[in-house]
């Protein structure tokens, strides 16, 4: 091999290794580090949780690396097939999916999968592709088509029932529609219509979903039952004070008052042990994450990449806002993890995939512009 060939080979290797956006990678690494420290305390009675999460992080980084190497043009070509397969799998789940704890969310193909997770990425991909194809000639009919494309998978997911995932998929699609130029007057009209339809929506909610809303209004009406989760999590958040009780010293967590403390309610553990100062640092990290994502979206060269990057970034915001809101008692309890902190492989892989797509958009920006 000649010296020129060696240099060319080394450049090729380097171009495929150094694909991570430095700023975004650092922010995610810091949040993951905070998550591991908190998980060690929250899962001290669950041996192996930290080791499992480290493996999940490794898998998520591999997925992130692969996604960062895939050009946005390729993502655009696969948008329709991924969406179609996702909807087909949701229909298959509705027909012969696996039922666990009263919900039909999974399907077995030799490996048990949850198709609704696919739609968190497939939905913004599909809508961003659609608006890219209609760029320069978007009318109200296009927003109507987009709404139908969004309503189909969301309806199937909520029917399972899985309100948490359905909310995230709905938000992912709505962000694309909004960023595509949906009028504020239309948004105001939709808000008024949503308010007017609340009695109808209330009538179609499942009993457990109604109970979650009622417990948000007054959790003390059933302090040892449905309201237990909210009461204990808010006690944990408040008892941390300004400086927190200290790492491994959270009484609410270690006396097992906090439910699901390694997953959905890990923020309660963090708040109790690190207090207001710790929460401020964590919120700052999430602000940096969202800010970096929005910078990538603003600088994206095509409508497809702008809509996709913006939607993924706002999904990160939605994850964090909904999780912290439900733990703090200002939103109903739904199954939404805290991004890059909660224990679990599926959500972490989905988040890693989203981060990888952001890095791909940033990495290939100049290539697309030229």
From TrEMBL:
Bilayer-crossing regions: 20-42, 54-71, 78-99, 143-159, 165-182, 187-205, 274-295, 307-334, 340-361
Family: Belongs to the SEDS family. MrdB/RodA subfamily.
Protein name in the entry: Peptidoglycan glycosyltransferase MrdB
Topology in the lipid bilayer: Multi-pass membrane protein
Keyword Cytoplasm belongs to the record: no
Location of the protein in the cell: Cell inner membrane; Membrane
Source taxonomy: Bacteria, Pseudomonadati, Pseudomonadota, Betaproteobacteria, Burkholderiales
Pathway assignment: Cell wall biogenesis; peptidoglycan biosynthesis
EC number: 2.4.99.28
One cellular-component annotation, GO: cell division site
InterPro entries: Cell_cycle_FtsW-rel_CS, FtsW/RodA, RodA/MrdB
Function statement: Peptidoglycan polymerase that is essential for cell wall elongation.
Molecular functions (GO terms): lipid-linked peptidoglycan transporter activity; peptidoglycan glycosyltransferase activity
PANTHER family on file: CELL CYCLE PROTEIN, PEPTIDOGLYCAN GLYCOSYLTRANSFERASE MRDB
Enzyme class: transferase
Pfam families listed in its UniProt record: FTSW_RODA_SPOVE
Catalysed conversion reaction: [GlcNAc-(1->4)-Mur2Ac(oyl-L-Ala-gamma-D-Glu-L-Lys-D-Ala-D-Ala)](n)-di-trans,octa-cis-undecaprenyl diphosphate + beta-D-GlcNAc-(1->4)-Mur2Ac(oyl-L-Ala-gamma-D-Glu-L-Lys-D-Ala-D-Ala)-di-trans,octa-cis-undecaprenyl diphosphate = [GlcNAc-(1->4)-Mur2Ac(oyl-L-Ala-gamma-D-Glu-L-Lys-D-Ala-D-Ala)](n+1)-di-trans,octa-cis-undecaprenyl diphosphate + di-trans,octa-cis-undecaprenyl diphosphate + H(+)
Keywords: Cell inner membrane, Cell membrane, Cell shape, Cell wall biogenesis/degradation, Glycosyltransferase, Membrane, Peptidoglycan synthesis, Transferase, Transmembrane, Transmembrane helix
Gene Ontology annotations of biological process type: cell division; cell wall organization; peptidoglycan biosynthetic process; regulation of cell shape
């Amino acid at each position: 091999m000649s010296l020129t060939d060696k240099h060319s080979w080394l450049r090729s290797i380097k171009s495929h290794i150094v694909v991570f956006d430095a700023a975004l990678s650092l922010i995610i690494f810091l949040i993951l580090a905070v998550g591991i420290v908190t998980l060690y305390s929250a899962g001290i009675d669950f041996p192996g949780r930290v080791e499992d999460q480290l493996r999940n992080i490794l898998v998520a980084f591999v997925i992130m690396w692969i996604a960062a190497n895939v050009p946005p043009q390729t993502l655009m070509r696969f948008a329709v097939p991924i969406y179609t397969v996702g909807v087909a799998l949701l229909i298959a789940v509705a027909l012969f999916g696996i039922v666990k704890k009263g919900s039909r969310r999974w399907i077995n193909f030799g490996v048990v999968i949850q198709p609704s997770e696919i739609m968190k990425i497939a939905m913004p991909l599909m809508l961003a592709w659609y608006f890219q194809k209609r760029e320069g000639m978007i009318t109200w009919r296009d927003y109507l088509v987009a709404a139908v494309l969004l309503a189909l998978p969301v309806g199937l997911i909520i029917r399972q029932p899985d309100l948490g995932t359905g909310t995230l998929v709905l938000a992912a699609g709505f962000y694309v529609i909004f960023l595509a130029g949906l009028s504020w007057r239309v948004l105001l009209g939709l808000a008024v219509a949503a308010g007017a339809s609340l009695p109808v929506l209330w009538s179609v909610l499942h009993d457990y979903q109604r109970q979650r809303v009622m417990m948000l209004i007054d959790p003390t009406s059933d302090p040892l039952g449905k309201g237990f989760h909210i009461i204990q999590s808010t006690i944990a958040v408040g008892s941390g004070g300004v400086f927190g009780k200290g790492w491994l010293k959270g009484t609410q967590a270690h006396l097992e008052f906090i439910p699901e403390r390694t997953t959905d309610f890990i923020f309660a553990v963090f708040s109790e042990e690190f207090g207001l100062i710790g929460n401020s640092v964590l919120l700052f990290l999430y602000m940096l994450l969202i800010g970096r994502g929005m910078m990538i979206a603003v600088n994206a060269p095509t409508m497809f990449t702008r809509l996709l990057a913006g939607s993924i970034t706002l999904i990160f915001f939605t994850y964090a806002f909904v999780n912290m809101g439900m733990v703090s008692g200002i939103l109903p309890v739904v199954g939404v993890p805290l991004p890059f902190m909660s224990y679990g492989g599926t959500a972490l892989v989905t988040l890693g995939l989203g981060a990888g797509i952001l890095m791909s958009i940033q990495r290939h920006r100049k290539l697309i512009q030229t």
